[in-house]
Amino acid sequence: MTPQEQLDGFIDKFTPEVAARAREAIAAVKARLPGATMLVYDNYNALAIGFGATDKVSGIVCSIALYPRWVSLFLTNGPSLSDPAGLLEGGGSVVRHVKLIGNRLDDPAVWALLDAAHAIVAVPIDPAGGGGLIIKSISAKQRSRRP
């Protein structure tokens, strides 16, 4: 099985609505960050797909996380990002997130946050890079992927 087939299988465990939103979000981030390497973590609580310059977690600019009821876009360096629209949630010291609910994938403020996160990352993504998809981990035990 290819990494893409594995990722598709992980996404298919969620409701059709969450799966569709996740696929839209992945396509949008891939278009916004050409050349990004995708790192997949099928964890206990969520399925997370990180986008970065390398195969190292330290280089992740953002990630898309699937939960049973929604999809979120997590941004590295979130606390330092200017967020005039007040979209960022969470109180972490490194990462903040935006729930991709309603029409948020069409909101320019979401993409401005992503662009700002990419601009300040230590290792920027090379648009001419090869990208790739790497399954980094699969948890043996997982919470239900459906509500």
Describe this structure as you would to a colleague.
The protein has 147 residues and is α+β, with helices and mostly antiparallel strands. The chain is 27% helix and 24% strand. The chain contains 3 helices and 6 strands; from the N terminus they run H-H-E-E-E-E-E-H-E. It has helices at 3-11, 16-32, 108-120, and strands at residues 37-42, 47-52, 60-66, 71-76, 95-99, 133-138. A hairpin with a 4-residue loop joins strand 1 (37-42) and strand 2. The longest helix has 17 residues, at 16-32. The chain is globular and about 35 Å long. The model has no long low-confidence stretch (mean pLDDT 96).
Number of helices: 3
- Give the biggest beta sheet: 6 strands, mixed
Helix content: 25-40%
**Into which percentage range does the β-strand content fall?**
15-25%
Rg over CA atoms: 14 Å
- Stretches where pLDDT falls below 50 for ≥5 residues? none
Mean pLDDT equals 96
Overall number of strands: 6
Order of helical and strand elements:
HHEEEEEHE
Shape: globular
Q: Label the structural class.
A: alpha+beta
